[in-house]
């Protein structure tokens, strides 16, 4: 049981920031579709990452959501 808790913790620590980046990119793309521009290109992941980091909490904000 202890190993499963440890593995679950590590999995959440690794995947939570990636999931946040994915959701932000999807929301940004959805806004582009509604306004009718930029349909062919996705949002740059580095730009989204930098916006989250510079939002005030630094790296901690990747796990805050």
Key attributes of the depicted protein:
65 residues; mainly alpha; 3 helices; 0% strand
Describe the structure.
With 65 residues, the chain is mostly helical. It has one domain (2-64). Helix content is 72%, strand content 0%. The chain is built from three helices and no strands. The chain is elongated. The mean pLDDT is 80.
How many domains? The number is: 1
Helical content stands at over 70%
Q: Give the radius of gyration.
A: 15 Å
Largest sheet: none
Write the layout of secondary structure elements.
Elements: H1 2-35, H2 45-53, H3 61-64
What's this entry about, in short?
The chain is mainly α and about 60 residues long. It is about 70% helix and about 0% strand. The radius of gyration is 15 Å and the shape is elongated.
């Amino acid at each position: 049981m202890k190993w499963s808790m440890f593995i679950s913790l590590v999995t959440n620590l690794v995947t939570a920031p990636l999931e946040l980046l994915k959701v932000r990119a999807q929301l940004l793309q959805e806004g582009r579709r509604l306004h009718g521009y930029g349909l062919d290109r996705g949002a740059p992941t580095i730009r989204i990452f930098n916006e989250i980091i510079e939002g005030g909490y630094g790296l901690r904000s990747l796990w805050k959501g």
